[in-house]
Amino acid sequence: MMSRISSCMPNWSVLPHPRDRLRRGKRAIRHMRIVLWLIAVLAPFAFALPAAAQSKVNIEQNFADSLTVLPKEELAVAGGFYVPAYSSVAMSQGKLRVDFSVTLSVHNASESQPLVVKRIAYFDTAGKQVESYLKAPVALRPLATVSIFIPTDDVRGGTGANFIVDWAATGDIAEPVVEALMVGGVANAHYAFISQGRPTRTATKK
């Protein structure tokens, strides 16, 4: 009987000592402090990523199939477009701001000639340049397209954002088609609309 009773008794030699539990608690607190410190240090960099990513847009790489070699002939015709881009829109009597993604597309409407795109620049509501997307002119193949995408969380452009697109060609050419597509929503409502580019000057021979 004594052996049966003793077998039910706890083995106090293997139970954790109160000091061990205290040490584990202190280690857990230290680990938590380290994690919180890392979050505080790295959070600003995480929030800065969307804006920084935009400066890495590479048209030459992303649209290699749409591009061709620059023409060797003189660029005798030139033109430009102003494209309104509504990155943010005020709603509910100005009490609500809705942000949109923006896709700028530049289409070569010619079936036979390359279109030289000399500049694609993005400006904010105050007219300050936010980004420039070309380091050097590029030539679009006939009927080819290049695009610039600005995600919803990049609100640097604001309610009056816009693009300037400058182009040229070696001779008479169909005028390019330049437009911006905005997509976004609030609650269960979704919106998509297009803004057409306005020529800033008539294409003329130099």
UniProtKB/TrEMBL annotation:
InterPro entries linked: DUF3124
Highest taxon in the source lineage: Bacteria
Protein name: Bll2613 protein
Organism of this sequence: Bradyrhizobium diazoefficiens (strain JCM 10833 / BCRC 13528 / IAM 13628 / NBRC 14792 / USDA 110)
